Amino acid sequence: MISTFRILWRRRPLIRALTVSNLRTVHRNTFLGYLWWLIDPIMMTAVYAVVVGFIFKRGGFHKPYPAFIMCGVVFWKSFSSTVTQAVNSISRNEGLVKSYSFPKAALPVSLVLSGSITFVFALVPVLLLVLFYQFVMGVSTVNVSWTLVYLPLLLAVQFTITLGAALMFSCFGVFFKDLGNIMTHVLRVVWYLSAGLYAISDIVKGYDGLLGTDWSRIRSYYLLNPFAHIMEGYRSAILYGRTPDLAGLALAFCIGALWVFVGLRIFQSKERKFTKFI
Amino acid sequence: MSIISIHNLGIRYTVYKSRSRSLSHRILQSVSRELARREFWALRQVTFDVNEGETLGVIGRNGAGKSTLCMAAAQILSPDEGNVTVRGRVAPILSLRSGYNKDLTGRENIYLCGALMGYKPSEIRAREQSILSFAELGEFIDNPVRNYSSGMRTRLAFSVATSIDPDVLVLDEVLGVGDASFRKKKRGANAGVDGEGAGDNTRLAFD
């Protein structure tokens, strides 16, 4: 694990070159180009705001609901699209893998880096929406404040967990070609299991006695979900002006660090087999 | 002092007899995995040394293992048996269909390929002019590589690999491509790297 890391560290110029080419190629052939970084989260927010907030009328607990969703959506969109791309990153770059000798882990790492850069731009419409609700609409629950200083911390946690997932799944993806299809469904389930459309506190509220289950125990299991803490953290810091739940973020960071460790270990033992397998 | 030293090299591939895509086939295959596959040694007990300044050409029929040897010498395939030691930086040109990002321009690919070979951006920038003048792609250097003809791709790949002055140059079946004037130029460049290049289809050239 240490040696894989050391090799990657020595090949920083390569990782930078791959990151730059990711950023350049993703939007080069499209008409709106880089604008898609802003359009994607806006569209996803609009869909959920209309379906859940307007048609189901379930957004009432969390005003303003569009801003509430958008804080979770931008994170999830960034995480899930990075992981989805990472699953196929090594076989999609077959040409490079079979032409040069380089650490293959640089491919998922560069995807995580370009995804993080994209994410920073995607935060701009979120901040604009939140400011709109506070100053134009005058919604009292919205309170943009100094807690924005927690954004770098949240970004660091998000980066770690995305990196861990990308490293592990890019390795598995070489050997199981079906993983790309499976991941679409897994990611969708995890999104609904995480506190994107609702708050963590909603898990207990009003369900006690339902199905004869002890909901406080279910909630304690639920709190092991790192993504729920990250989404809740972004909402606290951006929307409500509260200090994020630092214990939850610490847990998410530890899970992410464990994944990075496991991912690097898998790379170290399996990397030599990649060229023959793809 | 040998710059490449290959000792008792063996590369083994696993061949699956059934390549059927159907799910039932796959399940059967995973159950009786040992039956469904067989092992195949593309190379075995290959031993040689190449000294600095030497050129080594490899001739053989299709399937003899020339390309596999090139990939092993470029350290793209790791040996299943024996060992491969290479001192210095390797510039491989193994195929004209891959080895670059089609969506990037020629110029951007120079930097990407250089980085893949282990060069820093500053080192590539210092060589950019000589790569450009060797490739003679003119204004097309800023067009995406997907629009290049195979001749243009050869020029680009060859210019990068030779102008970047690597310690080892590994070429696989790419010498025959290109028009007469470019071939003459390539021969000249080869002379700079190693000596004279024979007309074999797989070559390892070493500096």
Architecture overview:
The complex is a heterodimer of chains A (278) and B (207). Chain A has 278 residues and is mainly alpha-helical. Helices cover 71% and strands 0% of the residues of chain A. Chain A has helices at 2-10, 12-26, 36-55, 65-87, 89-92, 94-97, 106-136, 151-175, 179-193, 215-222, 226-240, 246-270, 274-277. In chain A, helix 3 crosses helix 4 (65-87), helix 3 (36-55) crosses helix 7 and helix 7 (106-136) runs antiparallel to helix 8 (151-175). The longest helix of chain A has 31 residues, at 106-136. Chain A starts with a helix and ends with a helix. The relative contact order of chain A is 0.14. Chain B has 207 residues and is α+β, with helices and mostly antiparallel strands. Chain B is built from seven helices and seven strands; from the N terminus they run βααββαββαααβαβ. In chain B, the strands form two sheets. A four-stranded mixed sheet of chain B has the order 3-7-6-5, with helices on both faces. In chain B, helix 4 (106-116) packs across helix 6 (150-163) and helix 5 (121-135) crosses helix 6. Classes of the chains: A mainly alpha (278), B alpha+beta (207).
Q: What composes the largest sheet of chain A?
A: none
- Classify the helix fraction of chain B into a percent range: 25-40%
Structural domain tally of chain A: 1
Structural class of chain A: mainly alpha
Number of helices of chain B: 7
Q: Please give the alpha-carbon distance between the first and last residues of chain B.
A: 12 Å
Give the overall form of chain A: globular
Low-confidence stretches of chain B: 191-202
CATH architectural type of chain B: 3-Layer(aba) Sandwich
Oligomer: heterodimer
Radius of gyration of chain A: 20 Å
* Spatial order of the strands forming the largest sheet of chain B: 3-7-6-5
Broad CATH class of chain B: Alpha Beta
CATH topology type of chain B: Rossmann fold
Shape of chain B: globular
